[in-house]
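HUMAN: Mind making up another protein with tokenized structure?

ASSISTANT:
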Amino acid sequence: MVGHRRSRHQGASEAADGLAGHSYGGQKDAAFSRAIANAEGHFNRCPRCTSHVRDRCWNPGQGLCLHCSPDTAAEAQAARQRGLNDMAGQRAYDEGRRRGSSYDATTPRQLVCPQCSAETRGGAFCMSCGHHLAQAANCTGCSQVLPTGAAFCPACGTRG
């Protein structure tokens, strides 16, 4: 009896599918064909890469997509801008190198405040809390950097 119900249910399902396919399937196929025909008017197929692209991505003079055949005027403008950016970057780099020649890289700098953890940018005092940052002590006699804990300057003998 269970098998009888199953076959009856399967039969009803197949009949419903057949009816839907018979009356709705043809309409669905026709609508799909119309949609494809309508879309074809809005896309071009590139013979080189076989991509389908919209009109704004199509080079009609060449009959290729803009990826395969970029617009010469647009490419020239982009190249001019890249050149401008490259030259401005090079000049800024050169200016940084010029300024860097006067920067004393041997002076120790504390970049983070040990008291409040703020960025100090190498100053003598913290900009956030005013804490005196660890700076190398200089000799009052000859201005040489004194080693940590030195009582006298090793260069001139001045008491530190």
Notes: The radius of gyration is 40 Å. Confidence is low (pLDDT under 50) at residues 1-13. Strands lie at 43-45, 52-54, 58-59, 64-65.
